[in-house]
């Protein structure tokens, strides 16, 4: 009887030991998975990393509502390269493009920041994160309008009052700021040469200040105002605007302007040396939003001028079209094919 009891005791002890070892392995496995899923590199893991991740994680409800997360970038280049591998695996090419655009960066300057603001729910069109109002009734009669905000380094495009596109820009640096106010698109060229430095090639350049040589075009977006007065854009945005906007119409010989192109406005002031505006999205998803009231106050005094130039351009374009039709040889009805 004693022998039987002793055997059972040993058996229970062995089973309990196996259970404790199994639990320990499972716990270690869960801990490893938690560290891996957080995107933290192995050398950065700390004893309280699991607890910290739980504390800082964003609830699913907040993610669905479009809140923003922070992707922290280490200073060390090797560590950044390793983290970029994590970044590339987590997000596809279009998602990475959108994230960089929100941070006013292009792929060349992707690590020109210590933190990337990342939306919890990524919209690759960027329209879900527009700082500009989606509808402006004050522009309902204006067929095409492009606006650039210095404060948030972003542009918006309106067609009859509806926002159709927006994106990042890098405008004039502090010592060479872009001219503010209402202007109109002039000439365009698929590949222009900078008047500041001949080595600088400017793809899809669209001039808006002819005498000042200011226009929008593709060039580096480093995450802050860095240009020599021009309005830098991502390549895709520069192409899109190149095809969207209307040019001026010149008199024969090109000496004077017969009609102006698409209305363009640059407004606001950048807080030089201050915190980058888009970083504020981490604490307030609406931090960069420009209100309808602010836009109305800005645009109302200029709408009459926009409409006048729009109407004038349509009349000039129609008269040119009619003149060309009149100049074309009209076939004799007897010789015209049936």
Automatic annotation (TrEMBL):
Residues 31-55 are annotated as: Disordered. Pfam families: YkuD (PF03734). Pathway: Cell wall biogenesis; peptidoglycan biosynthesis. It comes from the Bacteria. Residues 144-267 form the L,D-TPase catalytic domain. Residues 43-55 have a biased composition (Basic and acidic residues). Belongs to the YkuD family. This is L,D-transpeptidase. It comes from Chryseobacterium gilvum.
